[in-house]
Amino acid sequence: MLTALFQCVLFSSFVLFSNGFYVPGVAPVEFKKGQRIEVKAVKMTSIHTQLPYEYYSLPFCLPKNGTFVYKSENLGEVLRGDRIVNTPYEVHMAENIKCRLLCHHKNNPINWSVEESDKVASRIEHEYFVHLLVDNLPVATRIISSDTAERIIEQGYRLGFMSKGKAYINNHLKLLLKYHKHSQDSYRVVGFEVETYSIDKDDLNFVDDSCTFPSDPNPQLVNEDTGTKLYFTYSVEWGESDISWASRWDIYLGMKDVQIHWFSIVNSIVVLFFLSGILTMIMVRTLRRDIARYNSDESIDDMMEETGWKLVHGDVFRPPPKRMLFAAVIGSGIQVFLMALITIFIAMLGMLSPASRGALMTAAIFLYVFMGLIAGYYSARLYNTMKGKQWKQAAFLTATLYPAIVFGTCFFLNFFIMGKHSSGAVPFSTMMALLCLWFCISLPLVYLGYYFGCRKQPFQHPVRTNFIPRKVPEQVWYMNIFICVLMAGILPFGAVCIELFFIFNALWENQFYYLFGFLFLVFCILVVSVSQISIVMVYFQLCGEDYHWWWKSFVVSGGSAVYILIYSIFYFFTKLEITEFIPILLYIGYTGLMVLTFWLLTGTIGFFAAYTFIRKIYAAVKID
């Protein structure tokens, strides 16, 4: 079995990193004057379709030798739809080019067929952006905002534009590059912007390889009726800059909204103090009084009139229904929690910056896989505590429940993405590698955790469970589970809603998310607020003599996921301009997975907070 496991791990590693593990942006690259600098293409994206395409999915100019080579990519880049490939642009350090033909000959323009022209026009209509790289620095375009009249930065450059129902392509790129002199003969690339022009082929004049065009040329039409004849040209303009190599990403990561993040943090802390005040009132005043009276010699009748949580001491630790499923859900939540905590912490330290494309997703996947050991251990101890006997089946359910939902959803959506020939479609080899990670690493680790967890003593409870279950009295209306979910979810959602807006922008509008320091603070506030809410709700439930708290604490604590679902619907109708079926389906599928993951995360936090609270309060009273 160990040999098979080792072979599976080797296979998945070989598939993922057969061409070398590509970790860009780690160290600066020094260039000599005149040295060739490769211009690479990453992909094309649109916020209207959410379907990325590789660069050569359109009939662009090919490299000089007529073949293009894809670079090695990490797992995160593949899942993001990145397909890094070389381009025919010839750029040399600190050497300007006024205007040059990119490919073909001046007497032999590119001739697109009707089908190719229609394909290009469709991408322009959907406002696709092309993303290029120079020395791992993504291209940016400066535009004037129509709302504020300020110059803002866009990632990538627009493929073209629409005018009077016709599509026009940007077929001339002016590459604006900046260098920083590290030493006398050593240069570093610190800036990469582009200005786009649409120039009709008849307005271009050629002298050998050089070209000229008027200051106000006619735009190049993409003719969908008869096909399109055009030239692709480019120019290069270098400029010296005082920007250091370490600061070259500042143009993309300009912190314009710092105040709103701090407002979110302060608001969340105020909410925490409010919840802490409620808990202090309950635990210091009410609980101490209850425990003191319960430990005194008062009559049982007096105690029954005073409080209700003490009366269910013989049933409060009664195992819940579907204990195997409960243990699997909590185990999955532990795995998600540890993955999120460690990933955000590592990103906060700057080790998963946007310069390392795909590193964040890669780290999250591998952390989730290896956290199966800890998840299995604690899930097994909980399953033992609930007097479960079928630990092997419970371990299998824990290892497969959440990943099966995620993999099944993504596998289903992948068929639609493949039908559109998008680079966002996960290749078969990557799918096999992910399955190997799941079944050859994660599943055995969960079983290993269960093995050691089952050998440990169950969690100790301070009171014994009665043989005959106590009848639960009718509950007040506000303790209905749906009302509890809505009440419990408001405050935790309020703590994360600001960061959620920026995360959604990063996911659906192709923007960078980099404020992991704020995100880590918000994550800590979320953990504390969910724990406090869970304790308050469980206390009120036990006061109503309802001891069915196991599942309810988990479901109610995940109430903020309901508000995230509502917010995602609001975001879809107010921020996005998606109209086609497949992009809508992708949004529904991926957002549903996000809501499920958040529910598992917060539900698990709330359960353990409630479980610890209940064990503490019942350990403080004397039971005959």
TrEMBL record:
UniProt subcellular location: Golgi apparatus; Membrane
Gene Ontology cellular component annotations, sorted alphabetically: Golgi apparatus; membrane
Keyword entries, A-Z: Golgi apparatus, Membrane, Signal, Transmembrane, Transmembrane helix
GO process annotations (BP): protein localization to membrane
Protein topology in the membrane: Multi-pass membrane protein
InterPro entries in the record: EMP70
Membrane-spanning intervals of the chain: 262-284, 325-352, 358-378, 399-419, 431-454, 475-508, 514-542, 554-573, 585-614
Signal peptide as annotated in the record: 1-20
Protein family per UniProt: Belongs to the nonaspanin (TM9SF) (TC 9.A.2) family.
Entries under PANTHER family matching the protein: TRANSMEMBRANE 9 SUPERFAMILY MEMBER 4, TRANSMEMBRANE 9 SUPERFAMILY PROTEIN
Protein known as: Transmembrane 9 superfamily member
Record lineage: Eukaryota, Metazoa, Ecdysozoa, Arthropoda, Hexapoda
